[in-house]
Every structure is written in structure tokens, then in C-alpha cells.
Amino acid sequence: xxxxxxxxxxxxxxxxxxxxxxxxxxxxxxxxxxxxxxxxxxxxxxxxxxxxxxxxxxxxxxxxxxxxxxxxxxxxxxxxxxxxxxxxxxxxxxxxxxxxxxxxxxxxxxxxxxxxxxxxxxxxxxxxxxxxxxxxxxxxxxxxxxxxxxxxxxxxxxxxxxxxxxxxxxxxxxxxxxxxxxxxxxxxxxxxxxxxxxxxxxxxxxxxxxxxxxxxxxxxxxxxxxxxxxxxxxxxxxxxxxxxxxxxxxxxxxxxxxxxxxxxxxxxxxxxxxxxxxxxxxxxxxxxxxxxxxxxxxxxxxxxxxxxxxxxxxxxxxxxxxxxxxxxxxxxxxxxxxxxxxxxxxxxxxxxxxxxxxxxxxxxxxxxxxxxxxxxxxxxxxxxxxxxxxxxxxxxxxxxxxxxx
Length: 405
Fold this sequence. Notes:
Elements: E1 3-7, H1 14-29, E2 38-41, H2 55-64, H3 67-93, E3 99-102, E4 105-108, H4 114-128, E5 132-140, H5 146-158, E6 160-166, H6 169-179, E7 188-189, H7 197-200, E8 212-216, H8 220-225, H9 233-249, E9 253-257, H10 262-275, E10 284-285, H11 290-298, E11 302-305, H12 308-316, E12 320-324, H13 328-336, E13 343-344, H14 351-362, H15 370-404
Parallel strand pairs: 1-2, 1-3, 3-5, 4-5, 5-6, 6-7, 8-9, 8-11, 9-10, 11-12, 12-13
Helix pairs in contact: 1-11, 3-4, 4-5, 9-10, 9-14
């Protein structure tokens, strides 16, 4: 079966690419056509890039605008992009296709109608081609505009959606609340496909006698823009410094990295000299592909950060994780692996509290089963492709019946 998997694979945030590549490969492993199953980036991107260096400035400008002003400003641009870039790109990629998967990632969110516009376009184009659709492993936000709900609900009700699975209970509740009237089927909860990364990218050997903590650097701007957390650049930089200092005082090596997002890279570059004296080897690792990100994470003993897929990759490899609270999706993930006690608030919790938890965790095996989570994610992908295969078979039989008639 030839599948098109719609997501944001080529986002500069390499966590999106990591989960997309895992889902593609798992679908193929479960029987999808290896030569004609691939991701289609919702923004029309076709390869991994560093992203625009102007992104931080754009986010800072948008952050300063009232929500209604921002939405009114962006709406004409979204309509223009949808008609001239996104829909033509989707149409082209849907040629010679048997079914559509939408996922994974935090796609069902409404930030100024961005994703609602893209999702509605994909759903309507698939409906025009009578293609069965599975929505798989997505995050669903709680805050939607009435326009965004109407847009996606209309498209859902007209499309042949055969399977819906979200990545946590909060997303399930949000999907049913916003779209339960448009989609009457069951909504399953599945593991994030990023938990499969340990199957596809080999882990280097790690030295548990000399542990290394990977600290994923996220900019204060990104934290503020995507959450309700109020934190300044200086406050967060100083908190990171306190964390690195505390780790060094315990004899624990630390290495810094980003997930590739331009605003994070820019922030890390500006503050590197402040942190360098406490970092093993100095500098900040800036991966350019999901595989590079995965290999870096696999080479650590523990990972600390805001970015969810850095932590998901760490969990896949059985590394310890300590999450910095910002987006509810991170709370949901940590709760799903039984590690809600390893959620901390940067600039509110003293670094010593987090380091105490890391030291405690390093002294024993991880208190979650990476093998179990892998098995859960693996089996749920099988259910996803099974629903599409069944729909394809029904369509084929109906076509034969119509010919006989």
C-alpha cells in the first residue's frame, strides 16, 4: 500500500523529523510500500535545513502583538500560502497514493489558524480523491478558535477517516471536545512514534562509571511564545549556568545541545561563553539531522530539557530524563511513563533539586520500561496500517461489484 504521511518532518525542530522518520519506517516494516511511502511536510518543505536566522525576530514580533491583531495580520498570508504553496504541494504528493496518514506531532493545535488551514486542506484533498485516512499519534491542543474548530470539523465530516489515535489522554479529551460531533468513531491513545527511534538508530556505548548529562538548550523566547511561562533570556541563562555548576560540583559531566530550532541555536550561541567553563569539551552541539540528534542523546546517561522529543529519544534508549515544565504535552508524556515526579520548573526550582534527582536516578536502573513502550508504539502502528488496508480492500471489492453490475 502506497501511503503519504502528512506531518512537519522537515521543521528545523529535529524532534519533528525524528518522530516522522520513525513512523515512516514503522509503516513500511508493517507492510507499506517502501518505494512509495513517505512524509509530506505540511509547510511544503522538502529537506532538512537550519531554518531562517530571522525566526527569533519574527517570533519576538508576533509575541508582542495582541492575539486578535496577530490573527488578523496572519490570516491573509495563510490564505495566500494555502492557495499558492501548500495545496499545490499536497495535490502533487497525493498522486499514485492509496491512503493518507496524518501524524505524528503536535498537529491539532490552533495558533492563529495555521494548522487548521493546513489540516483542512489535506482532509479535503484526500476526500476529493476518495482516499481513506488515519490520524495517528498526534497531540491535540485545548485552546482552539471557533473558526479553527469549524474549519477542521467540516473537513473531518466530509473525509473518509478510518482511524484516530492521539498520543495522550489530554489530547483525546481535547479531540472529543472539539471534534466529537464531526468524527463519531473511537479515539485511541497510543505511544508517540518517536519512542521507536532506538530501533532505527543504533546506540553508542556509554560509560555508567563516568555519567554525562545532556542539557537541551531552549530559548526563553520559545518557552514564552509556546506557553504561559514567563521567563526572561537572562533569568533562563543564569538558571542553566546554575545547573551546569551544580552538576560539575557533583563530578558529573555535562554536554549542551539544541534540537535544531533557529531561536534555540541563536540563544545558545549568544550564551555559550557564559556556560563553556562548566561543559565537557565546551560549546553546544547543533545537530543537522534527526539521526545526529538521536546519536547524541543515546550517548548520554541522562537528558534535561524543555523539548519533548529530546526526552522521548532519551526514554527510547533507556536513559534517565528530567523535564522542564512549559507545555502541557510534556506533562502528559512524563505522566505516561510514570515520571511526573521528574518535572521541574526552570527559574523556580533550584538547580540542586533537579541534580539531586539525577544523582538518585543514576544510582539505579530507569524506573520505566523502554522495551514496553517500544512494544506499545510498534503494535499501535500495526493497528493504524491495518485499518487503512481494510478500507482499501473494501473499496476494491466495491469497485469489482460495480463492474459486475
